[in-house]
Model the fold of this input.
Amino acid sequence: MKKILDFLFSTKLMAVLFLVFAAAMAIATFVENDYGTPTARKLIYASWWFELIMFVFMVNFVGNIFRFRLYRREKWPVLLFHSAFILILLGAWVTRYISYEGIMPIMEGKTSNRFLTEKVYVSVADETGKDLIVKKILLGKKGNNYFKAKSDDGTVTVEFQDYVPNAKQVLEPKEGATKYIHLVEQSSGSRHDHFIAKDSVIFIHGVPISYNDDLRLPGIHFFEENGQMKIKSPLSGSYMIMATRAQGTLVADSVQDFNIRSLYSLGDLSFVVPSGPQNGELTYKSDDPNYFPKDLVSINLTANGETQKVDVTGGQFMTDGVTKAIVGGKKYKVSYGSRFIELPFAVKLRDFQLDRYPGSNSPMSYASEVTVIDTVKHKHFDFRIFMNNILNYQGYKFFQASYSITPQGEETRLSVNHDSLGTTLTYIGYGLLYLGLILILFMPGTRFSDLRKKLRQLRVKQAILLLLFLLPAKSIFAQATSHDNDINVDTFLQSTAIPVEHAKIFGRLVVQDAGGRMKPVNTFSSELLRKLTKHDTYHGLNSDQVLASMILNPRVWYYAPVIFMKKENKKVRKILGVPEDEKYARLIDFFDGNGGYKLRDYVEEASKKRIPGAFDKSVILIDQRVNLLYGVLEQERGLRFFPLKDDPNHKWYSAMDAPQVFHGDDSVFVSKIFPLYAQVMMEAKKTGNDSLAIDLLHGITKFQKSYGAAVMPPDKQIDLEILYNKYDIFKKLFSYYMYIGTLLFLFVIFQLFRDGKVIRWLIKGSMWIILVLFALHTAGLGVRWYISGHTPWSNAYESMIYVAWATMLFGLLFGRKSPLTMGATAFLTSMMLMIAHWNWMDPAIENLVPVLNSYWLMIHVSIIVASYGPFALSMILGIVALLFMVLTNNQNKSRLAAKIKEITYINEMSMTIGLVMLTIGNFLGGQWANESWGRYWGWDPKETWALISIMVYAFILHARLVPGLRGRFTFNLLSVFGFASILMTYFGVNFYLAGLHSYAKGDPPPTPVWIYYFLVALIVLSVAAYFNYKKYYRKPGDE
Done:
């Protein structure tokens, strides 16, 4: 028994559990990405062995509390957060096995007292509706789905046979089998495939449709006569032959030839028969979940000695999947899907409110005005449910989950949760966790406190940053080249461009973008030019001059080479007739002599593909640029300068909208102002006096302020946003951080050979410059926060510049007395800012989706994303430590040993802070999810990978307790390769895996080739460091 307990409480088992638990979760995220959430839950998250890992973890926690005497006063912080994990696991157990949750859909004006369960069931009921079998199931695309269940009296049995997710019914051709007609209809707005067997009748929206020769039956008849399909309908209607667009009329109660591949409209019923009658067998296959959301479950139903196969369709939050069967002489109803749970009270949806961003269909927020009706307790009260504002009544919590707007009305979907005990235990655990983690950073007697003392004792004043030799920097911002064949267009554009000072006034006009964000023209033009050309200027013209020219001379821009194409887009160039050496295409190149769009068929084909190839991706990206330019030149979209007076949605319009939207003098002003401006500017070019043109721009501004004051940004915000665009501070900081980091490195190298006042002053001055750059970095984030109106870490670009800021912050905190640490951090920060400005990250400021428009964004995201900074710092310090190990020899061992010790202490302190922040941030995210959707943990890939990173770094920090894993080499090596989990948490999940947190829109960005070279270099460095470390440091007193 003692041996078993020693094993259960051992640090070796603890280390194995960290790694196995992390590996299992990592595999689960890829299983989910490839096979769906139910499969991941079935194979891993809900499996017995996964729960066993957590149980053994909990036992190990308890054992180590006594083994390491964590109940001592100086160890209370450690005791707190270890006890917290025990409570969190207990709370999770209660939530899984005792609590329940679901979705409550309510139409506006209706009342409901029941909700749909989150779990799904296979049920068998008799003909009266009495449940005989209710079996909870969890099915997946992979793994063993088998189940079997009996009724209480043992007379009825169900046994699993087959499962087809996202099932689409298809007809497999087979000679001699039943003949079917395949009919496709979408009268309800979505496609439905129906198969009508020979001599049978089906009902579609209450209309009987038969395939037989008996014309006396009511409804629509299909039959064959001499090989020709015929139709007889009690309803008159029309049809259109889809291939020729020829139209015809269907006369009621008459027999007519039926045309396949034709669209028939009979009353409210519209349908197409894509092919003639065919012999075959009906079966199911998996298809697109967007079009076929229901799953198929096949079971063997046994009753009174007879067995029959029964197919039933349904799924989560569905209740309409019911199949009737007669087995053993009795009638049964078999269903698959969620079940209803009744509440002890009712909820009425008085009003559903959806607010959109000004002039946009994008939702800004939504809320449900409800009334709780409790006839038992005689209570009746109103409540407003919206994101992060929950209704809590009688142990049930209601959250604003989603909504649906259909022709039938507005429907809210409230998430319902009954988990008081589980949530209470979990929240107590969270509280203890936060307290314990914070205390370990400040209370004496903790490992962090010991490291702080050891670091002070070292007082190392010199350090070397040789890492800079390994990563040669290269500017990624190439300049555009001009082409000789564009001289005439270029000359015209230069001669007609508005002056720079005039362009500044034009850039202050306000425009409303497609998402409803109000921004100065300068921002819109900068984004436009950057997306079209990948540059900030065009042939010497700034973005405001370019946009003004597009408005004043749109036809000329059809011939301007402005649409960027990559070198590898050779096939696209061939289609367009553009020379292979041309970097840019003209808009006119995309249209043939008849005005047809050359890429139309290619774009349509590429959009249909589930996995598009390289050519398809190129076509889609280029098509986006073409549409962007075309929309601006044709004034169709993107140039919404003009607010409509008293518009309820504060929508602004373009000049093209004037005849349909504006009336009277406003219509004349909107439609004529830019043509007049163009005419006046032509005269100004001749006279050199553009004052009248400037007055016209001021007139537009006055119009905007008069009618659009409710959403018009203040002048101060406009000025600041233009200033932000002008200096592009984060792009410049990339170079500045790199330059000063390189100089600091050179100064430190020089200091090794010849120390003196000057070199010390230069090192100190470099560190002060880094501090100034950090201040500019901080100011840039603050300005972006003010401009956008939300915290600047809501998308990929913002989170990257914020991670860079957090990295530099911790570098300054830990490196204020260490040029090595500060130089390493400056270099790392420059790399992060470089990544932020790669092509697949869009720096445009955007509006927030409703769930992000929350104070939780500031709390959760700021903490969890900032934690990446200390981890990045640990990674770079680990590389430096390994470098020092490689460079160690008999002559410099004593000097480098002290430096390695200093680096390792700073590394462990940085990693500890990172782990504290990541853990707190991740579980705060759980609280956000619970306050938003009623579930504090859902195994979303992002939260899962954050937990994996917590496991990885907890393993690294605990490695010193495990025999065989102690030592500075092991710790620094793990700190380098452990950062891969952070890269996966940030980049992998955000761009390569599907989930709630994904930033990816379309295809993931390609993995840079240099990543592989860097990985090989790290492996080589690690191997070399190992042998040198073994040679010089693996001796008593050197650890």
Notes: The first strand starts at residue 100 and ends at 107. The domain at 169-283 is CATH 2.60.200 (Tumour Suppressor Smad4). The mean pLDDT is 85. The longest helix spans residues 893-933.
